[in-house]
# Entry
Amino acid sequence: QVQLVESGGGLVQSGGSLRLSCAASGRTFSSYRMGWFRQAPGKEREFVAACMWSGGATYYVDSVEGRFTISRDNAKNTVYLQMNSLKPEDTAVYYCNAHWGGDDYWGQGTQVTVSS
# Structure
C-alpha cells in the first residue's frame, strides 16, 4: 500500500523558514515525479515544486522561485521542501504528490500558516 506522509508544517512569522518532509513507502518510486502542491482556503490546489525521484531538474511555480527548494533523500525515501522567506500568501495546506503515468498518489497534507 502506497503511503505519503507529510510533516513539518506549523505556524511561522513572515520571513521565517520551515522544512516540510514527505516520507514515501509502499513501492519503488525511482521513476516517479515527486511534487509539492498547496491549497489555500477558498482556492484551488496549485503546483508548488517538483523533481524526479531519480534526480535531475527541479521545477517551481514563479511565486516561490528562489525561496523554496525541493530535494530528496533516496536512502530515507523522503522528499523535502525547504521554504525560506515565507510570506502570508504562502499560508495553505501543503500536499506531497507522487506521479508516474496513470499513477497519482497524495499525502494527507500539512498546514503551513505564515503570520504577518
